[in-house]
Amino acid sequence: MALQLSSACNLALSHRKTKQVRAVASDDFVKVKSKEDNVVKLGGSDLKLTKLGIGAWSWGDTSYWNNFEWDVLIRCYKLRNAAWKERKKKYPEDEIAVATKFAALPWRLGRQSVLAALKDSLSRLELDSVELYQLHWPGIWGNEGYIDGLGDAVEQGLVKAVGVSNYSEKRLREAYKQLQKRGIPLASNQVNYSLIYRIPEENGVKATCDELGISLIAYSPIAQGVLTGKYTPQNIPTGPRGNIYTAEFLTELQPLLNRIKEIGQNYNKTPTQVALNWLIAQDNVIPIPGAKNAEQAKEFGGALGWSLTSDEVNELRELASKSKPVVGFPVEKL
Fold first, then answer.
1. pTM of the model
2. Do 165 and 137 touch, CB atoms closer than 8 A?
């Protein structure tokens, strides 16, 4: 499982030597069985991951998820190293792929800033290297330097694979070509992608990932909880999410949510598992739904090992298209 321990962290299951992988979710441990048919290579890299991961954005982003409760952020950072060390001690036979991101902040300039940030992360994680290092978003300027920094990280043995996040088709192609000159594959592009946010299909990002052999890692794959069915027009999400998933929007979404539930009942699956399986059915997509506890992580595992029919996939897409598209991350258009 890939683990980024920052305020916008994510996890993705890894499978290389063992037949089982265990997922770390908050301070709990959950066993998730993995079979060969649930394992994929990450882009053109040698890194192998399960088709589903665990997102941890909500662990530490107090401004968006926790209504500025700073104690949540503090607890997140206190738990992270303790959880990591405990997992290694308890399950020494399992392998966990660790992923982290570089934030292209305006004052971070050049390739050295990418390496410096990575080394700081490695120091905090008490690791010599991580499996995946991604640029969190395109730089306003100096983007070529950031890509060079990714390449340097690979050549210095600090990472196994590199990727980007929130990259448009144009920037994706540029990053791919720049790394290709050094014989380094661009392994992933992590973007907002779900049944009700299909912009990567419309702006060329999904098609470009498929064409170039870049894995698409889908964040917010259950639309920040909306596709679970837990929210209704009378019970909208708290905080900033309430401005996106309004009562009006949730009213329009009810036919889709009802059908997701019905389909799930036919398979003895939850709406969450149906929504995730729909994404996996798109091929070359690794969803990383957000988990706040072990129970949620275990539920996500139920999205593997079965498949929606093509008719069901198409029916859900058609129903979803009748709702207004939600607002995405502005940096997608940089």
1. 0.85
2. yes
